[in-house]
Amino acid sequence: MFQTYEEIRQWRNETMPSVAADHFQLNAFHDQVMNLTVQLAKEKTAKEQGTPPAPFAFFLMGSAGRYEQSVWSDQDHGILFEGADQKYFLHLGEEISRGLEITGYELCEGRVMASNPLWCQSVDSFKQQITDWLEEASWQSLRNFSILLDSRVLNGKEELLLEIKRYAFSRLEEEPRLYSRLVENFEFIKKGIGVFGQLLPDQRQGVRGEIHLKETAYFPYVNALRLLAMRKGVSAASTLKRFISLADTLPFLKDYEQDFLQLLEFRLRFRNNADNYGKVHLLSIEQLSRNEKQELKYLIKRGNQLFDKVRWLLKEEGAL
């Protein structure tokens, strides 16, 4: 269908306005764009390096893995393969990263990409990597572990990633003490509401009068459901799918699922104010009406409340 990454980028730009107002259409479209890019990268690599030496899975992480991208997004992805030929798959990962950058997805500043050997490994080496992360239990190693669990296969053999997740859950069962460290990792949420009930703007240099929607409103929901997914062995990466999977045994989640859906819709109302990835999560407080400010404060409070409930639940179960 498309012969170059530039053609995919043009189609992306032309089509985006028609899907940008609906969360599900938007994320399905991102999947289409990225999958077309991966297919083209696979073809280019096959011409240069030959066919893949073993079955593999190209998987998404971060907001793409959770099916929660906004109009603009950066890259978070990896490759999992059978056998031991990392060289071929690193070359493929580099081509995919290059293609995605051209089609409209910025390179990940933290290099969480299939072009990085850390995120391009065989099934066996990834299992060892998980063991190493959990044994080290540093802030960064546990962050990497959490990033990996927010993953889903976009292209390739899904069973490979499922095998890795099952292994990760089994290691957590053996080391329940790790939940305390994981909760500590997730607790550092940027405060969005002041002591007088006012919305707090981001204080970083170059940012004036804007609140970071992802860090203040999204993360409590995402982190709470990620912790529950780890605890209950739920392999789904999407926060919404985690809500659905866990609601039968934890009925209190149903109300918070509606809050999260409301938050997704709230974000897309202001999608046109961001013209690049760096601004996509920043929202000017001044542009919000009184009702919108109240709505946002409600959603922030509910997310924090949810995280506190999950922390209490883990404590009751003896995981903390």
Architecture overview:
The chain is α+β, with helices and mostly antiparallel strands. It folds into two domains: 5-175, Beta Polymerase, domain 2 (2-Layer Sandwich), CATH 3.30.460.10; 182-316. The chain is built from twelve helices and six strands. The protein has helices at residues 5-19, 23-49, 62-65, 86-103, 123-136, 139-149, 158-174, 178-187, 213-232, 239-247, 253-269, 290-316, and strands at 56-60, 77-81, 120-122, 152-156, 210-212, 282-284. The strands form two sheets. The chain has a four-stranded mixed β-sheet with strand order 3-2-1-4, sandwiched between helices. Strands 5-6 form a two-stranded antiparallel ribbon. Helix 1 crosses helix 4 (86-103), helix 2 crosses helix 4 and helix 10 packs antiparallel against helix 11 (253-269).
